[in-house]
Amino acid sequence: MNDTDRQQLDRLLDGDLSPEECDVLRVRLEADPEAVAYLADRATLVSDLRRSLTRRRLQRDAMASVLPGGRISSQHEVAPSFRRRWVIVAAAVAAILLLAMSGTLFFHSRWPGRDEVIAEIIELQEVLPTRQWQVGQRVALRAITLASGSVTLRLPRGVLLQLSGPLEAEFASATTLKLCRGNATADVGETGKGFVIETVNARVMDLGTRFGVAVGNAKETDVVVFDGTVEVYEPATNSAAQRPPITLTEGEAIRVDGSRKPQRARMIVLGTDARSLQDGTSADIVADVADNVAERDFHRYYGLLRGVMGDGARLYTTGHSRTWHAMPGETFPEELVGADVVCTFYPARREKDLEITISLTRPCVLYVFPDGRQPVPDWLRRDFTDTGLQLRSGPWIPRGVDPESLPPGEAEKTYVPFGVWKRTISQPGPVVLGTPCASEHGDRQAMYGIAVKAIP
User: Fold this and answer.
1) Percent of residues, the chain, with pLDDT higher than 90
2) Which residues, including other chains, have CB under 8 Å from residue 42's CB and lie 6 or more apart?
3) CA atoms of 437 and 170, how far apart (whole Å)
4) Are residues 300 and 251 in the same domain?
5) Residue 108 domain flag
6) Quick one: 275 and 298 in the same domain?
7) C-alpha span between 456 and 362 (Å, rounded)
8) 42-72 pLDDT, tens per residue?
9) C-alpha–C-alpha distance, residues 453 and 364, integer Å
10) Residue 92 is part of which domain span?
11) Does residue 244 share a domain with residue 136?
12) 107 found inside a domain
């Protein structure tokens, strides 16, 4: 919407449009929620002014009852032309409500208050407590409480915000969300840069990205970056000297607890798309994933995906295009379908002394998928059994390149074969996995994958 559109809407409120112009604008309002939102905001401003004038009139009447002569200066009178404007404003508001009721336009059921944010509902999933929300509807929000389920909102600057219960949050403005409990994933795109999520322990500002923030029952804050870059600051309310912000990029995560000292978040429970957050539960087979990497500024994390193993499941927490697939001409191995996936990170392929410790909560089958082009590491041969099955991952192409744009036969070359090795775990507890490197040429191979499936 440009300045000319805004001027025309202002003229509607001023009563300066001809009947023909009003008919054209009515058609525009039916198809343009942004124009309706602007008109509603302007009407709200006028409404605030009317309440202010009403208070002044009451004060005038009170003064008139005690002052000699019972009269005050005429400068406090409301101009007749302003009264006329109220007839026009009421007509405009009624027209908007009529459009909403007729089903041609979904809009919030009440005008936004001064501290509320207008958001469009993009997706709803089993939201409790039950709300009379519909996809496509515009609602005025400030405080949000979800016992369960999730809602995805589009904010005024195009930010997509997914909120998952149990959650307690509040909008401080259209560009700032205060998260008290629960999970929030923000996809800010280009127009929403600068969006902020605040918690009691951290202040997260995006620099054009997709990121998630989770606040647990102990108020610990996890910050995860799926794309792009964010900066993590100390809370704005912290009166002590502020530490420099921590910059996180794709595939990195930190945890900030009451000590306000950021630590590496080693494992994050992800949504099925691996680009959003879910709550961890005691029912998970994998309780934790850790490793022996001790670098101070190392922030890579392992991602837990529940029950998603199959064609198209994510392999790493870095590189979105790397997903699991069946071998050419074969179906995906039924034995693996529905397993939990532990996403590793590709840079670990060079770690010759790497040890990954997986803490398991109950008996299960643990799978490891090594690069099929390279020798199998000794620890894998010793502790695991080769199933004889194979998978492939890919496509291994630069981000933004469409595999279908490649010449015939070239797309197949962008996939890497992997073996399938397994170990039956009979007792809960930790299991240690070793390095992906079976030779001195570890940088020429892919990092292995991990999956876990409960024993029926």
Assistant:
1) 55
2) 9, 10, 13
3) 48
4) no
5) no
6) yes
7) 11
8) 665 555 445 554 555 545 554 454 444 444 3
9) 6
10) 3-102
11) yes
12) no
